[in-house]
Specification:
Elements: E1 19-21, E2 26-31, E3 41-45, E4 50-54, H1 71-86, H2 90-99, E5 107-110, H3 119-131, E6 137-142, H4 148-162, E7 166-171, H5 177-186, E8 189-193, E9 196-197, E10 200-201, H6 203-215, E11 221-228, H7 234-240, E12 248-249, E13 253-256, H8 261-281
Parallel strand pairs: 4-5, 6-7, 6-8, 8-11, 11-12, 11-13
Antiparallel strand pairs: 1-2, 2-3, 3-4, 9-10
Helix pairs in contact: 1-3, 1-5, 2-3, 4-8
This protein binds flavin mononucleotide.
Residues 144-149, 195-199, 227-232, 257 line the site of flavin mononucleotide (FMN).
Length: 284
């Protein structure tokens, strides 16, 4: 009523599980609140076993091909949709994934993106994104002004790779923020790279941290690396910006100007700790 200004007397209010006969077809309504609006609801067409899933299982793809033909392409588009929109609601999604288990589904037709003629493809993908273990992956959003932080990032990335940890780095000056969100779906650890500017983290990093906090990825560990000139509250400010992340914070590494030998040793040690923690957690 608020969004379309349709008068109340035009509505039928249906409860969870209620059915509506259209003659030779029957719709059953399935309430899936907070996936991702408070009143999200799906409709199951019983005779044809089609689940009209509303926002659930959507993908960020606009194509005239009605059905999924290239699953790899749609996987990326659905992961982007999940990462950008659904990730903060993952506990609700988990509950609702269970709820639809009892339905015999031949086709899932979401409101966004292509129709899935093979529902297990998208059901399994969601199960993995939500319930699967984090990956042996460090996601490293960073920015640099004079390349000191960049030197630290380069060294740190090599060090992690040598220890068998995968890394995806994102330069926050140019990055596609949706791709960062997608990487956060899998990350075991987030490491933020920032120079100190105006006594705190660089504004682009503030934006990245705000987004990560809002998206609530399932990462278990977080650290900060970066360079400063004389001082500031970079670590305190960033740490205060991520209350939603249920992470263990690992000792940050900050270098004064260009990283010294000791700073590189500290980065090496940080990489070692992360590799060890990933092993302990059994990240894949
Ligand atoms: C606009 C600007 C503001 C800065 N503000 C601070 C600051 O408040 N505190 C500080 O310790 N360093 C400050 N610096 C110095 C940088 O943190 C320092 O040069 C650092 O090594 C830059 O790292 P980068 O090479 O990765 O950009 C500032 C530098 C610039 C250009």
């Amino acid at each position: 009523m608020d969004l379309l200004q349709i008068p109340e007397n035009k509505f039928i209010t249906v409860s969870d599980g209620e059915t509506l006969s259209l003659g030779d077809k029957t719709l059953e309504f399935v309430h899936t609140p907070w996936v991702h609006w408070p009143e999200t609801m799906m409709a199951y067409l019983k005779e044809d076993k089609i689940l009209f899933s509303c926002d659930f299982f959507g993908s960020h793809i606009a194509t005239s091909d009605l059905y999924v033909s290239d699953e790899a392409r749609v996987y990326e588009a659905a992961k982007r949709y999940y990462a950008e929109i659904m990730m903060p609601f993952k506990n609700m999604i988990k509950k609702n994934l269970k709820k639809i288990r009892s339905y015999d589904i031949d086709i899932i037709a979401p409101s966004h993106g292509s129709i899935y003629p093979r529902p297990s493809f998208i059901l399994n993908a969601h199960k993995d994104w939500i319930e699967g273990p984090s990956k042996n992956l460090v996601v490293l959003p960073y920015i640099t002004m004079h390349n000191s932080t960049k030197k630290m990032v380069d060294f740190f990335v090599s060090s992690l790779v040598e220890k068998g940890v995968s890394v995806e780095q994102f330069h926050l000056g140019v990055t596609d923020i949706g791709k960062l969100a997608m990487a956060l779906v899998d990350a075991g650890t987030i490491v933020i790279g920032t120079p100190t500017v105006l006594a705190g983290p660089h504004p682009n990093v503030v934006y990245g941290a705000y987004l990560a906090n809002a998206l609530r990825p399932k990462a278990k560990f977080l650290s900060i690396i970066g360079s400063y000139g004389w001082g500031g509250k970079t670590v305190e400010i960033l740490a205060g910006m991520i209350p939603n992340l249920k992470v263990e914070v690992i000792e940050p590494v900050l270098a004064k100007g260009l990283p010294s030998e000791d700073d590189l040793k500290a980065l090496e040690n940080l990489a070692k700790i992360i590799a060890m923690k990933h092993k302990e957690q059994g990240f894949l």
